[in-house]
Amino acid sequence: MKCLGVIGGLGPMATALFYQMVTEMTEARTDQEHIELLIHSCPKISDRSSYILGTSRESPAVSMAAVGRKLAEHGADFIVVPCITAGCFYQELSEQIPVPVMDNFGEIAWYLKDRQISKIGLMAADGTVKAGLLQKELELAGMKVLVPEEKEQQDVMHLIYQDVKAGRPPEPERFFKVIGKLKDAGAQKVLLGCTELSVIARQLGGEPNCMDALAILARRTVQLCGKLGKSYEI
């Protein structure tokens, strides 16, 4: 069985939820049949969006790569980063870590394409939206991508930074308002393209209009480890 390395702490709640998802999705009848994981929660890694937006000069890729190399040294066969914005640094991480790194954006696009999604709404952090790499990957897979208007994007950032990352309860009205606007604009589904939004969705009991990017990555992780026992649809 493969040993999975997880670059965590981006943020901590999302890492905890990722581990829970992987555990829930794994076909196992005993403790010993579960996947071996090495989780390095390193919350001091600089904020991904701040670097992409130019408000921070400290590249998070440097610290992420250092953590990835340590995980590889300790036996990890491949690396996952349960942070969607971290997908913007996939190329750098792949070049600097000696074991395979999961391509977050590619895996998400493949999963949605396989489910015949042609028009997807995107709720994500400003860094992900501005970088445009996730949108490009989705468009290459044949999808039209809808992003929130400025006011709704502010609501998304509030949910991520003022609610989950700040340790406060989520504000459901903001969450559902953005989803509703994207659905009204024609989105078949809304992609929760930030792991803090995945935390909110789990806390609120799920949202049928959404596709959870963190759950997609967890599902693919378990599949790569050969332990996906059930047909988990996200």
Mean pLDDT: 96
Approximately how much beta-strand content do the residues carry?
5-15%
Instruction: State the secondary-structure class.
Output: alpha/beta
Order of helices and strands: EHEHHEHHEHHEHHEHEH
Q: Report the C-alpha radius of gyration, rounded.
A: 17 Å
Total of helices: 11
In brief:
The protein is an alpha/beta fold.
Chain-wise SSE layout:
Elements: E1 3-8, H1 12-25, E2 36-41, H2 48-53, H3 60-73, E3 78-80, H4 90-96, H5 104-114, E4 119-123, H6 126-131, H7 133-140, E5 144-146, H8 150-164, H9 172-184, E6 189-192, H10 195-203, E7 210-212, H11 213-224
Parallel strand pairs: 1-2, 1-3, 4-5, 4-6, 6-7
Helix pairs in contact: 1-10, 1-11, 5-7, 5-11, 8-9, 8-10
Your description of this structure?
This protein is α/β, with parallel strands linked by helices and 234 residues long. Helix content is 49%, strand content 13%. The chain is built from eleven helices and seven strands. It has helices spanning 12-25, 48-53, 60-73, 90-96, 104-114, 126-131, 133-140, 150-164, 172-184, 195-203, 213-224; strands spanning 3-8, 36-41, 78-80, 119-123, 144-146, 189-192, 210-212. A four-stranded parallel beta sheet has the order 5-4-6-7. α1 crosses α10, α1 (12-25) crosses α11 and α8 runs antiparallel to α9 (172-184). The radius of gyration is 17 Å and the shape is globular. The model has no long low-confidence stretch (mean pLDDT 96).
